[in-house]
């Protein structure tokens, strides 16, 4: 019994040390990105990333709730193109608005998360030609509050899985 309590005490102390370390050392600036090479010209790939409607045909975050409600507004593929989503607890609620467009090259949007937690982020799709193929980089930047810094390693893991899933789906669509 004393051994179990000793091990439990050590685990609690290690957890507390990790939390303090994460809060003090991890940066509040969070950048995450993934890339994929798609066997298609950038003009063809752009058809799948150049508007919020196109994005939502393969968006892995939206696919987490088959009953998600999405409302679009603004001119498709232009600055101001936006959508509002409301889904289950996993998907939450928020809105994404296109803030900059360089056709066939880059789309920047602002994300505003409402539920399950309030927050803002910036997302980018960058298309770079590589011979007759296209490199697509999907990036997201935001600021982490103190408690979110503690969750950073788990966020990296989950974001990696989700971005990879989405980019696989994009690749499949664009290579058809």
UniProtKB/TrEMBL annotation:
It comes from the Bacteria. This is Polyketide cyclase. The chain crosses the membrane at residues 7-26. Pfam families: Polyketide_cyc2 (PF10604). InterPro entries: Polyketide_cyclase/dehydratase, START-like_dom_sf. SUPFAM superfamilies: Bet v1-like. CDD domains: SRPBCC_1. Keywords: Membrane, Transmembrane, Transmembrane helix.
């Amino acid at each position: 019994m004393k051994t179990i309590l000793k091990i439990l005490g050590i685990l609690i102390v290690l957890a507390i040390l990790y939390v303090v370390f994460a809060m003090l050392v991890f940066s509040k600036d969070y950048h995450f990105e993934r890339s994929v090479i798609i066997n298609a010209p950038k003009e063809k790939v752009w058809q799948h990333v150049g508007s919020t409607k196109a994005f939502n045909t393969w968006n892995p975050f939206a696919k987490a709730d088959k009953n998600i409600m999405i409302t679009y507004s603004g001119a498709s593929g232009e600055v101001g193109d936006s959508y509002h989503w409301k889904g289950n607890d996993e998907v939450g609620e928020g809105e994404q608005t296109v803030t900059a467009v360089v056709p066939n090259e880059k789309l920047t949007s602002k994300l505003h998360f409402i539920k399950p937690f309030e927050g803002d982020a910036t997302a980018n799709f960058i298309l770079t030609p590589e011979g007759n193929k296209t490199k697509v980089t999907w990036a997201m930047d935001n600021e982490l509050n103190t408690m979110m810094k503690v969750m950073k390693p788990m966020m990296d893991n989950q974001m990696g899985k989700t971005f990879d899933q989405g980019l696989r789906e994009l690749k499949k669509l664009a290579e058809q």
